[in-house]
Amino acid sequence: MSIARERIDRLEALAKEAATANEDERAREYVALARRIAERNRLRLPRSFERFTCDRCDRYLRPGRNARVRLQDGHVVLTCECGAHHRYPYRP
Ligand SMILES: [Zn+2]
Questions:
Q1: N or C end of the chain, less CB within 10 A?
Q2: What binding partners and quaternary form does the record give (predicted)?
């Protein structure tokens, strides 16, 4: 595992912790930093990271608190507070 990969995983965990503690600004900084590291190292972000972060405003998404979840035509649609939609296929 590369150092960049480890840092991204660590930042994801920190973002989750911060979001759980209602420290959204701090969570957002971790998300933004993890994204920069991924870009610089040409790494793909983990799927869990892509699902639970907003690529428009870098919020760490928490369904029911700062994100709305809807099921639509076999897709999960997550709507961020900033208005961005994220869709991904839903597999039962
Ligand atoms: Zn957003």
A1: C
A2: Consists of a catalytic RNA component and at least 4-5 protein subunits.
